Amino acid sequence: MKITVHYSTKTGTVKQAFNKIFPYLKIEFIKTDSPEQKMENKFSVNILHNRFLGEINNNIRQAEINIRQDDKANYLEELFYHQFGLPIKVFKKERKHWLPAAVEDLTLSQQNEQAMMKARSFNS
């Protein structure tokens, strides 16, 4: 899946495109206190809702991001941060909760499938 990212792209647009491919995963654009916290994965989660990407990083340049089924969550988080200066977190649905997905060494596709199976067994 390719998503064009530029100053006036809304966070919701990116999240919606991601969710179409991975309905049991989601990405959230977050605010960190510093770049070091993002890289160390130490941050307080401040989710940025329905913002222009240029509001999060006013130096963002237009480019495409290619999200593949076999990408891992931590790779995708690093890609958004290094390519666009946009801190994101990937979450997976775990019953009624959303948990960080980057802690697992599974691909996005595998995590989505796993979350779907758990949701089906929980609802039956």
Word description of this protein:
With 124 residues, this protein is of the alpha+beta class. 40% of the residues lie in helices and 23% in strands. The protein has five helices and six strands, in the order E-H-E-H-E-H-E-H-E-E-H. The strands form two sheets. A four-stranded antiparallel β-sheet has the order 3-2-5-6. Strands 1-4 form a two-stranded antiparallel sheet.
Layout of strands and helices, then pairs:
Layout: E1 2-5, H1 11-21, E2 25-31, H2 35-40, E3 46-47, H3 53-56, E4 63-66, H4 73-84, E5 88-94, E6 97-100, H5 108-123
Antiparallel strand pairs: 1-4, 2-3, 2-5, 5-6
Helix % is 25-40%
Number of distinct helices: 5
Q: How many E-type strands?
A: 6
Order of helices and strands: EHEHEHEHEEH
Rounded to the nearest angstrom, the distance between the terminal CA atoms is 32 Å
Q: From the alpha carbons, calculate the radius of gyration and give it in angstroms.
A: 14 Å
Instruction: Give the low-confidence spans.
Output: none
Structural class computed from helices and strand pairing = alpha+beta
Strand percent estimate: 15-25%
Strand order of the largest sheet: 3-2-5-6
Query: What spatial form do the alpha-carbon principal axes imply?
Result: globular
Indicate how many domains the architecture comprises: 1
Largest sheet: 4 strands, antiparallel
Average pLDDT reading = 88
List keywords for this structure.
124 residues, alpha+beta, four-stranded antiparallel β-sheet, 5 helices, 40% helix
